[in-house]
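Researcher: We're teaching a course module on how sequence relates to structure. For the next exercise, students receive a sequence and then see the predicted structure as tokens, so they can try to spot secondary structure elements on their own. Here is the exercise chain.
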Amino acid sequence: MYRVLLEIGNITIYSYGAMIALGVLLIIYLAGKVAKDIGLTSDNIIDLVVVAVVGGVVGSRIYYILAYNFEYYLQNPWQIFNIREGGLVFFGGLIGGALAVIGLIYYRKWRIWEIADLAGLFVPLGYFFGRIGCFLNGCCYGIPTESFLGIPFPYLDGQKYHPTMLYSAILGLGLFFFALWYRKRRRFAGESFLYYLIFYSVGRFFIEFFRENPKVFNLLTVAQATGIVTIIISLSLYPYLKRKNAYIQKDDEKDVKSA
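Model: And here is the predicted structure for the students to work with:
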């Protein structure tokens, strides 16, 4: 596709990195506007985003190594740090980023489920930009197809493949707009985040059928299995959080029940 976006002298700007950077900057700007409702400043948002990105990269790399190619990296440990050739998994990034952010939240004594709802709003937006970066980079494509949806990738054999990165980008953008619409309609802190986890897992489950990933016990891919576990955990948390965090701040209320 368009792996190199721009070359200026000895400086090369890659499309994937440019999309990630654009997504991060947009999230920092938009989240800074929204986060004022829960008492966070723009500096707080920058801290959260930086910690989430670092934790996400580490988590996505560890997940990929353990789930997909453990023996190779066991024999070639120096390749663990070579992420320029890919090898990042979103579910791992979600876990790693969440753990890193949770650590920061407890250190700063912020309200965890209000911030989780921010994540449920802006993680899908970041995911959208990341998947557009994948498309421009020509990675994360799906299985071969002769349907009208198929796209030839110049770095491959000329055959058409499902552009699953675009399917994922549409999923991410749809989840972002849903969370944006639902934000003022939440019934408790954490609700938007749980909906995000559930809807993303369902969407990813079906997208996986168009990708060629190894299956666990010849049944489900690792992402599908992880998605099922995520849905079960989210549904289990729903009634608990509904009782604990009900009656969050409305426009005409001054007090927020602690989350």
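Model: If you want an answer key for the exercise: Residues 4-244 form one domain. The chain has one domain: 4-244.
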